[in-house]
Structure to design on (443 residues):
């Protein structure tokens, strides 16, 4: 996420990060490089120039040049200004009405239909809502099929009327269906086009007027950069939407849309899509995103994701096993399953301070655990519960059965031992040591 921008900003601020003396001249040179990094990320020139002017004004106003650690203060000013540029405070979604109607808008290919499903899943699992998805794309039969598949995946009702070519009528009928079935959220998926056109704008304006949604959301592909911002403006002029959804942030995103869209349309980014899975949706926190762009990580989001997957009963069971030296491979496997549910591996690693920079050229496969699972599944129940039984001949048999090498089996044994020791350390009061290690990680 924003790897190229992060790298360029890090290089630009590198001169000022030391404790040495800095001057007004090298502050100006640094901010020139910051502006160039923003322009390369497809941020509008006017916005990039205004941003660096504000940073310079604040830096000189706070006497950065005379402080003991001028570089650190400069990075903080850049972070604060970046946070403000992306919206400042986190914005929630308005679902107070019954039913709450959410209208999804955007161009074709922006990920609108998939995100409708992700949003329904989020509201269902995190907010205990009962959503109904309404298929109002009358031009693309595949969009209706896709919405039904998505609804099936997340266990949500889907309303469609294939014989009807009037999206306004379908939207109204969908709301009536939601009321009849006791659904308290209606998410209306509308048609997209390959470009903004009069017919499209007229159609979505008519749906908007007919259903009077509590939330109108504009879905945009984050990889399209400045084009995304221009499209957002065109939609906002017609719909006066409530918020923006940025999809495909797990791809090769330059970052321009995320950074400048708020300035152009004065509407907040409410959610981001971070992968293909239905769970790959995050509330957009401007401050956290600014920290990630500047390579500071995002430990808060990482902890929140971990807590969402945390099974208290399972944890207590594992705690007792560790205390009795009974932690086995089945327990190790259950921990892996919980980690996998947290999301894209490279994205998770990018949330750890200092790790994002190290991982920029590393390709982390989401199937990274596949061979580990294969090795564990090739063990007998007794071997999984008593890892000490694994001698050379057993390892050879397990390697052959899982399609892996003895080296990979040995590597897994080593990882297992390390994890066991770490867990014992956490139990034996070593948690404070680990927290201290985390605090001392480079930021």
């Amino acid at each position: 996420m924003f790897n190229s921008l992060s790298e360029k900003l890090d290089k630009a601020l590198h001169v000022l990060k030391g404790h040495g003396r800095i001057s007004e001249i090298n502050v100006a040179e640094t901010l020139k490089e910051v502006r160039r990094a923003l322009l390369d990320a497809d941020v509008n020139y006017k916005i990039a120039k205004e941003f660096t002017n504000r940073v310079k004004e604040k830096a000189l106003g706070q006497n950065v040049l005379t402080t003991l650690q001028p570089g650190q203060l400069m990075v903080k000013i850049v972070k604060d200004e970046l946070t403000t540029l992306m919206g400042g405070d986190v914005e929630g979604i308005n679902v107070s009405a019954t039913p709450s109607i959410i209208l999804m808008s955007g161009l074709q290919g922006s990920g609108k239909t998939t995100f409708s499903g992700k949003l329904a899943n989020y509201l269902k699992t995190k907010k205990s809502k009962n959503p109904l998805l309404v298929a109002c794309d009358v031009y693309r039969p595949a969009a209706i099929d896709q919405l039904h598949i998505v609804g099936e995946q997340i266990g949500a009702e889907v309303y469609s009327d294939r014989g009807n070519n009037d999206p306004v009528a379908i939207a109204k009928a969908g709301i009536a269906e939601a009321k009849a079935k006791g659904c308290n959220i209606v998410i209306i998926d509308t048609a997209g086009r390959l470009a903004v056109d009069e017919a499209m704008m007229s159609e979505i304006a008519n749906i908007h007027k007919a259903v009077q949604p509590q939330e109108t959301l504009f879905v945009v592909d984050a990889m399209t950069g400045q084009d995304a911002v221009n499209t957002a403006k065109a939609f906002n002029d017609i719909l006066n939407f409530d918020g923006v959804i940025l999809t495909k942030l797990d791809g090769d995103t330059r970052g321009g849309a995320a950074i400048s869209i708020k300035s152009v349309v004065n509407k907040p980014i409410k959610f981001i899509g971070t992968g293909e899975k239905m769970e790959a949706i995050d509330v957009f926190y401007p401050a956290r995103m600014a920290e990630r762009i500047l390579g500071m990580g995002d430990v808060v989001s990482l902890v929140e994701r971990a807590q969402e997957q945390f099974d208290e009963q399972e944890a207590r069971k594992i705690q007792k096993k560790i205390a009795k030296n009974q932690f086995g491979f089945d327990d190790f496997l259950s921990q892996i399953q919980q980690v996998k549910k947290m999301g894209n591996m490279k994205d998770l690693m990018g949330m750890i301070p200092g790790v994002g920079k190290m991982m920029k050229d590393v390709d982390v496969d989401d199937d990274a655990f596949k061979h580990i699972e294969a090795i564990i599944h090739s063990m007998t129940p007794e071997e999984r519960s008593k890892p000490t039984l694994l001698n050379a001949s057993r390892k050879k048999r397990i390697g052959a059965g899982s399609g892996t090498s003895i080296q990979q089996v040995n590597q897994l044994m080593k990882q297992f031992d390390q994890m066991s020791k770490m867990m014992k350390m956490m139990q034996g009061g070593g948690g404070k040591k680990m927290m201290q290690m985390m605090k001392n990680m480079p930021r």
User: Anything to note?
Assistant: The mean pLDDT is 78.
